[in-house]
Amino acid sequence: MTPIYRPKMKALTKNRLRAVSISASILMLSSSVVIADSSSTADSSNTVKQSHALSLLSQSEQQRLQHRLSQVESEIERLLPQLSLEEKVSLVHAGGKFHIPAIERLNIHEMWMSDGPHGVRYEIDRNSWAPAGWTNDYSTYLPPLTAVAASWDPNMASLHGNVLGAEARHRNKDLILGPGVNLARLPLYGRNFEYMGEDPYLAATLVVPTVKAIQANDVGATVKHYALNTQELNRTGVNAKPDERTLREVYLPAFEAAVKEANVHAIMGAYNEFRGTNANQSHHLIKTILKGEWAYEGVLLTDWNVDINTYDAAMNGLDIEMGTAVESYDAYFLADPLLAMIKAGKVPESELDDKVRRILRVQLSIGMMDKQRLSGERNTQAHRDDARTIATNGVVLLKNNKQVLPLDADKVKNILVLGPNADKRHGFGGGSSEVKALYEISPLDGLKAKFEQNGRKVNIQYMRPASSAFMPIPNDYLTTRHWTGTPSWQINYYTDNQLKQLSSESWIADPQFDAKGQQQNVEILANIKPMETGKHTLKLMAQGKVTLLINDKAIVDDNAKPANIINAEVELKAGETYAFKLIYQGKDKVTLGWETPNSLYNSEDEYLAAAKNADAVIYFGGLSHADDRESIDRPDMKLPGQQDEIIEKLLTANQNTVVFMIGGSAVEMPWAEKANAIAWGWYGGMEAGNAYTDILFGDVNPSGKMPITLPKKLQDTAPIALNDYNEKESLYSEGVFIGYRWFEQQKIAPEFPFGHGLSYSEFSYDDINFSSSKLSGDDTLTVTASITNTSKTDGAEVVQLYLNDVKASVPRPLKELKGFDKIWLKAGETGQVSFTLYQRDLSFWDINTNDWLAESGEFKVMLGSSVEDIRLQKSFNYQQ
């Protein structure tokens, strides 16, 4: 079997990227040699795995590192016999919220973990989810992995991993719980923003340099969530049941690459079930594939509070249990219950020994017993520069008619800034990905800073436009937080009119509820802190029985028939906290809004007049972590908060309005055809505002490409079209036709296709050539082409290689991504891109032989700027 990933890593471009530090680059001790065949076993000698890097070290450093790695296996065998049965059991389950215990007499230290797919999470208390209260646990807030995926650049993945690894090590962490590589199958999925897009090849390619860079810092990476965690709806109970071909071709390649190409130290199991049992105790996923076929030598650990049992978890390959809803760590499934099963002869001690060996292997490999272990660094200027670089490289220019962008800083005198994300910060939200950063530059901050720095006087006006619709109380006033860090309202569902029999509870972003024609009894609660003292007019739009209490005092008690607006005036004081409770009983809708002494919002007349008179109008819209967050999927694909209405009116008032979207998942954009300029910035990290400003004014030429398809409407997506999104089971009915593959198969035109992204430059493609027109067996094929920057602006193009098996015995996508290369070219410059195709790239998973199969016949190579923008194509023949 040929490797999934063999990139030709280009040097980081001068004046654009800060080189990854020498110490990090050369200490990639966690990288493995390529495993070229599925039957191969990993070399137990870590020295062999990194001999290619040692030549860059000084002689003393070489000796130290070689000694550490050469001693790993012998140290494991020295330590293991000295451990009592009870001590071995203590290592396979948590001894605190984020660590496993030490065995001090043998110099085995506590092994500490931290959340942090895009920044090391603030310190959690040893034995609870409460913050530890540290004042020195700030970390660099990086753009999430969607931005890395949008860069289509392994260099950005390396920068991201290096910052994460160095900062984790500086915080004395041993494992960082990232990166995540689950695929964006469903636009509603709450954790899409954490991952690397919808394509298995793209994710597999970028996870490798990410893991290598993390582990170069003497920290173990933890690739998650293995496997098929593609929805948050009933994430602990939904049963994922893909066929074997879909599993192998789509949902496992990124994990496979992390194991075979990057020698990742840890993998975290998924919450969901896989074919009837929790993924953390699936014999097929773990014993057969992960630790069998892939010869994985690291540890498999659980996420927190998964649905496992002692016997299946112990026998099927789970190594560390990190979180279970019991009072004592000794009551974990892999604690006293496992000890009892071993003593009773129900679980062989050899299974436990295998787990302990793996844990010790990780600890020894990352230098936990090495006095010269790397110390890391944190909150450095270099790391902030890296955050900005990653953010700018990930911005995608979706549309730029009439060359609206870049804005001319010398001509712009009046800038109107609008939108819910203009002054919003996103670091403290989203779930386990939340980051406590020293600062976060909002888009509005970034724009102001640009002109303050050059001394030019520019009028930057910020407005919050009010829509014509009835608006709920903005979350600016909320002090209540969902556990993910997001301002939210708690909603409780009751089965009875007296609200005594609680059936379920959840969280919503705004105080509005739609019963959708079904009788509901709900209670919506939050704590509110007014910004002004004075009369507040509470406004309730409802049809049904509605009651509003503030600090348990009834303010409204009404049976609204038909739907109308109920007003109630209350005196509130700025800075005080008030407990709001809204009770609704009915089959229709309810929304709680208010008018404050001075509204946060500008009227339609105000903002449209300002838009007509502005030199530049920038609307920062999209999502926030009230929408994109762990544990909850979005209810639909629409922009929240009446944004569509406001954007439509702005585009009418000023056709050159720039719509700048922020978010981690696709949204419907019914106004897209009308807009002349649209950009997508994901969540940009702590330097977001500066990065976005760099793009808007042309200080950086955009080069990002969409790692996901942007559909016109939710119903166009496979899980919804096939009715395969529910609480109970997901059949993955679309098979291998995930994302863009589905849109092409069904001939559905998306709003913007996978791989799409414009530049301020233009590029031509010429001279596609093959190293051979015929291949056989495990021959490789080199594909080259010439790319020319035909514009007057220096820039970068991501050349994408798609492959088509012209006549296959099984249904295959019309195009499958099998290569990409980001090439930087000066104005007028021509350069060459080169791709190597392996037998594996030609193959599909054959369910008859349970192996990869490349069939004889014609294959078409297509090179393009997106999956829909193919510039060159050529065919070759393959013989088995």
From TrEMBL:
Q: Which GO terms describe its molecular function?
A: hydrolase activity
One Pfam family hit: PA14
Asked if the record carries the keyword Membrane, the reply is no
Q: Which domain of life is it from?
A: Bacteria
The record's annotation in Gene3D superfamilies points to: 2.60.120.380, Glycoside hydrolase family 3 C-terminal domain, Glycoside hydrolase, family 3, N-terminal domain, Immunoglobulins
PANTHER family referenced in this protein's UniProt entry, alphabetically: BETA-GLUCOSIDASE
This chain's protein is named: Glycoside hydrolase family 3 C-terminal domain-containing protein
